[in-house]
Amino acid sequence: MNAATQAGPLGELLRRHGLDSIDGAFAWTGGEDMTAVHLKGRQRWTMDLDDAQGRTWRVYMKRYLREGLGQRLSRLLTYGWRRSPAGVELAMIRACQAAGVGTIDQAQGGEEFDCRGARRSYIIMTAVPGESLEQSAGPFIERCGLDSRRVVEFTRLLAGLVRRFHAAGLVHRDLYNCHIFLHEPGGPAGAIELRLIDLARAFRPRWRRFRWRVKDLAQLKHSMPWEWVSAHWGLFMDEYLPGERAAGRGRLEQAIDHKVATIRRRGTHEDRHGLPYGYQPKEPLP
After folding, report:
1. pTM value surpassing 0.90
2. Which of 57, 54, 56, 49 is nearest to 17 (CA)?
3. Is 273 exposed, middle or buried (0-12, 13-18, 19+ CB in 10 A)?
4. Is 232 helix (H, G, I), strand (E, B) or coil?
5. Which residues, in sequence order, are CB contacts of 115 under 8 Å at separation 6+?
6. Which residues contact 221 (CB under 8 A, 6 or more apart)?
7. Is 86 in the same domain as 203?
8. Residues 234 and 168 both lie in one domain
9. Residue 192: CATH number of its domain
10. Pick from 63, 76, 129, 250: most CB atoms within 10 A?
């Protein structure tokens, strides 16, 4: 990835605002700084940038400083030589686009290396329309009705998104519903669009792919509204595994539920997001 080779509408926008180079991106102080305190060496910004036609673009920028030795070794083993954090995310976005997986429309960035690896890197991405399933799934199901055709359509689309992602050899490692966006561009009766975001940790495992798929599916199952899981998880798995033999599906379902139980026991997702929600119902299932 080279900032000097950026092209297309987003590339033109970044050149207009001096964000088409490492130095320009790291000198930028406009927009809203959304950096979390615990994100050492990582910075996040939200920006509204005007293009030459007077249109305003909502974009997000991530900036990465040099990682620690342990992180650099882990990145080397997972992704190979000379792979920066921003470079990995950009490559995963493009891999999703090539596989027909809904994701971020446009992304550009740059990276800088020295003898110790990636010194600095950044990525700027266009905003994804809609809301995350963390915020939208419950209201969507309540509005449409749990057993409605629209929720069935949503379920099929969600399974298709995950199936194509995994069929491309990719795994997410953080496939909670906050990382899938739901958009209804034609309104409540129009088309449904789903997009996968936050691909910074996605990768193509060379071994133990079953384990990584289980983790993704368990994270999704755990974080979705429990009434949807109770009513539609079977349909989701039908669409995710079309034609799968009963024995193979049973093994996968058992592994997913075991992992869901582990996530619930550890409270990993709730601790991260501060919300006790998801697969485990507040009331016993009927």
Report:
1. no
2. 49
3. middle
4. helix
5. none
6. 229, 233, 256, 260, 279
7. no
8. yes
9. 1.10.510.10
10. 63
